[in-house]
Amino acid sequence: MAGIVLSEAEGRQGKRRGFCIRGLRTFLSPGVGSLHFTPLVRGSGCHWLLWICWIPWALVAEGDSAVPPPILTNEVEFPLRLASPQPLNPTFPRLPSSDPPPVVPSLPLVLPQASPWPTQALKGTWIPLREWADYIGASAPKRVADKPNAAYELKAKRGSLVFRVGSSRVSAFSTDVMLGQLPQFIAGEPCAHRLDLEKTLFPLLWPSSTLLATTNRFVVLDPGHGGKDSGTQSFDARYYEKSFTLDWALRTKALLEARGIPVLLTRTNDQEVSLAQRVFIAEEAKAAVFVSLHFNSATPLVVRRGLEVYALTPPGMISSVVREGEDNPRLSFPNNHFDPSNTLLAWLIQRAVVQSSGAYDRGVQRARFMGVLRGQKRPAVLVEGGYLSHLEESRRISEAGYRQKLAEGVAKGIEQFFELPE
Ligand SMILES: [Zn+2]
């Protein structure tokens, strides 16, 4: 079929490589499919047949468990034409490559303090929500939904927690957080895993108890990728992820510095910086907080959108996302010392960016494979600001005004992290 071009898309951190079929993906995208679909088949005899194939796909495509429709591979023209990204828009903010390397300010070292954990008042691995509610001073669990999962709401001082039996997604004060273990019924009672209650929800209930006693507010922002490592590409193959992340970081830096919060970037131009160097820069700067900025990409036939913030998986907990089967719950890294603060920082940024941008809330997630987080001796998170593989979201990310909203969200989340909530 004329108009279908294969474009090379490099996966996150340059490790996955695949092909996205731009025309076909547009054709299959729910919400926009009908705009493109009808002109393609108008007048053909297979109009109704294709509609019947497309509608069920559009209904399920947004979910993670979407079943991809069959690809009509004989419609791809051969030989394959690889689309190469066009040069950046001249108005795209960039710093000249001759800029000197970032100056690392000299700040007094603030040693992190051990994070307080809740007492072991509750016994056992699986805690009934009824006991947990009583322990945290919340209302007794109230069943608020039966389908698709039995949902229970606990009203705490800071807001509502909604657990769903059989679902890892918990609504924590209207922002979603992913649990390591699925809540389940035990002896007829809804229960959640102790690690999830202690390491994911407790820091959100008592944020002041998880924050480090420090006056250091130095932030290191990490624009993902750079140089030969381009990251993924925008849906229209015009821009690389590395350009968007740098622009996003520059905008966030300006906002934070206007609020009196000093910021250092791990790169200020299109240069390659290894993951180890990024950790080293934060270490040298004695940064109070490290935030890595990325955009996401799904495999070609998965239609996925939305914002997610990653924190390192605490020891013993199962990760939300694994890579190449790598997820050993017995592992512990230097950054795990900051598990409660990581959770809180991730949740604050997730909430603020969802509010500022209107992006779909994919929730705070956990991963153990992210090298840029593992060695951080400070609260550290990685923000995935949306899916460049999604037509609509990629289009929005390509707009400077939308990236400014993403920057406002990150800046607000970091600023709130430094304010000691009650
Ligand atoms: Zn990336």
Q: Your description of this structure?
A:
With 422 residues, this protein is an alpha/beta fold. It folds into three domains: 6-75, no CATH class; 126-206, Copper Amine Oxidase, Chain A, domain 1 (2-Layer Sandwich); 212-418, Zn-dependent exopeptidases (Aminopeptidase, 3-Layer(aba) Sandwich), CATH 3.40.630.40. Helices cover 31% and strands 19% of the residues. It has helices at 22-28, 33-41, 47-60, 129-136, 194-205, 207-210, 241-258, 275-284, 339-357, 371-374, 391-397, 400-418; strands spanning 6-10, 17-21, 126-128, 142-145, 151-156, 159-164, 169-172, 175-178, 184-186, 189-193, 219-223, 263-265, 289-296, 307-312, 361-367, 380-387. A hairpin with a 6-residue loop joins strand 1 (6-10) and strand 2 (17-21). Helix 5 crosses helix 9 (339-357), helix 7 (241-258) packs across helix 12 (400-418) and helix 9 (339-357) runs antiparallel to helix 12. The longest helix has 19 residues, at 339-357. The N and C termini lie far apart (61 Å). Zinc ion (ZN) binds at residues 12-13, 224-225, 231, 241, 294.
Low-confidence stretches: 1-44, 53-119
Kindly report how far apart the N and C termini lie.
Answer: 61 Å
What is the spatial order of strands in the main beta sheet? Answer: 12-11-13-16-14-15
CATH fold topology of the largest domain: Aminopeptidase
Distinct small-molecule ligands in the complex: zinc ion
Return the domain count.
Answer: 3
Q: Structural class per helix/strand content?
A: alpha/beta
Overall pLDDT score: 76
User: In the CATH hierarchy, what is the class of the largest domain?
Assistant: Alpha Beta
Q: Percent of residues in beta strands?
A: 15-25%
Radius of gyration: 23 Å
What best-fitting shape do the alpha-carbon axes yield?
A: globular
Q: Tell me which CATH architecture of the largest domain applies here.
A: 3-Layer(aba) Sandwich
Order of helices and strands: EEHHHEHEEEEEEEHHEHEHEEHEHEHH
Describe the largest sheet. Answer: 6 strands, mixed
Total number of helical segments? 12
